[in-house]
Amino acid sequence: MNNYQAKGGIKFTIRQPIESDAEGIIHFAKVLFPSTDQVVTTPEEFTMTVEQEQAWIRSSAQNPDSIILIAEADNVIVGLLSLAAHAKKKFAHTGEFGVSVHPNYQGMGIGRKLVETLLEWAKGNAHIEKVFLNVFHTNQKAIELYRSLGFIEEGRHIKAAKQPSGEYVDVIQMYVETK
Asked: Is residue 105 among the annotated active site residues?
């Protein structure tokens, strides 16, 4: 567990979750998904149960090439990052991650600290040589953050997502090498 101070003086910790965090993760997701169109999951698609979240936490903890990180402020989950290594041997040196921050805590440096923590973990992991993510081209703040951390655009999927409004969104794949 690492302690940090966000912009605005808010204190938060980053740690790996334990099974008892499952309800807090579900609550975080139920706040996040309706607050933005910059994530893939829609609110009605999120149907995870506490038991399913616990199984996900257990599975990640048992896999040395995957990690879940939560950011917590005042005993509330305010950020989440998860990375899973690719299952196929030829791609097992890569890991895909996603990161999100509670809408009331965005722009404070919590997402940056989550990604920095991930990159430090990946540098110490014997197998992960490259981490990547997908981001909507409309999420300019996130793209700027990733670029500032050394991520490079390596591909674009044109009209990969269709927003409820009917707007098509390109998905940009970005990566950074960790070895």
From this structure: no
